[in-house]
């Protein structure tokens, strides 16, 4: 299963395309669509540049994100910090520390897990970005 979206190339950079996508199928099936930060339902995406397409501003493309990558990304963004919070809180509490300090330590660990995920994204995040499947309209 793949998630497909259509978009228009807004800007061509040296190593990537900036593509404006109107969210449709991906957002409609998401349970978090009402609390999402993309309230305008339009989003700019950075897509790695592939020379074989030779896109220019205004070209319409179809983007693809494999569903497996979406699930993996969701686990990294939601599961890892939540598990970190719970594990550290219970671990610190088992040493006889007060509940307040245990929860505080859990939140600190959760913040550190977000920092780690950011570093991970900077190094390996490109593989989680959408790829251009085909060019629909050239201008």
Helix content: 40-55%
Number of strands: 5
Oligomer type? single chain
How widely separated are the two ends? 30 Å
Which parts are unreliable, with pLDDT below 50 for 5 consecutive residues or more?
A: none
**Mean pLDDT rating:** 81
Domain count: the total is 1
Defining traits:
139 residues; alpha+beta; 3 helices; 5 strands; 28% strand
Describe this structure in words.
The protein has 139 residues and is α+β, with helices and mostly antiparallel strands. The chain has one domain (2-137). 42% of the residues lie in helices and 28% in strands. The chain is built from three helices and five strands. The protein has a five-stranded antiparallel β-sheet. It starts with a strand and ends with a strand.
Summarize the structure.
This protein has helices at 25-28, 67-94, 99-124; strands at residues 2-12, 16-22, 42-48, 60-66, 131-137. With 139 residues, it is an alpha+beta fold. A five-stranded antiparallel beta sheet has the order 3-2-1-4-5.
Topology:
Elements: E1 2-12, E2 16-22, H1 25-28, E3 42-48, E4 60-66, H2 67-94, H3 99-124, E5 131-137
Antiparallel strand pairs: 1-2, 1-4, 2-3, 4-5
């Amino acid at each position: 299963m793949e998630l497909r979206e259509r978009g228009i190339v807004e800007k061509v950079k040296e190593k990537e395309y900036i593509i404006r996508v109107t969210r449709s199928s991906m957002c409609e099936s998401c349970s978090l669509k009402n609390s999402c930060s993309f309230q305008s339902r339009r989003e700019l995406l950075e897509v790695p540049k592939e020379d074989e397409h030779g896109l220019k501003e205004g070209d319409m493309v179809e983007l693809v994100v494999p569903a497996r990558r979406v699930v993996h990304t969701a686990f990294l963004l939601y599961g890892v910090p939540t598990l970190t919070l719970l594990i550290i809180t219970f671990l610190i509490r088992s040493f006889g520390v007060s509940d307040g300090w245990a929860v505080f330590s859990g939140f600190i660990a959760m913040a550190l897990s977000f920092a780690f995920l950011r570093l991970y994204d900077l190094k390996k995040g490109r593989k989680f970005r959408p790829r251009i499947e085909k060019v629909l309209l050239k201008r």
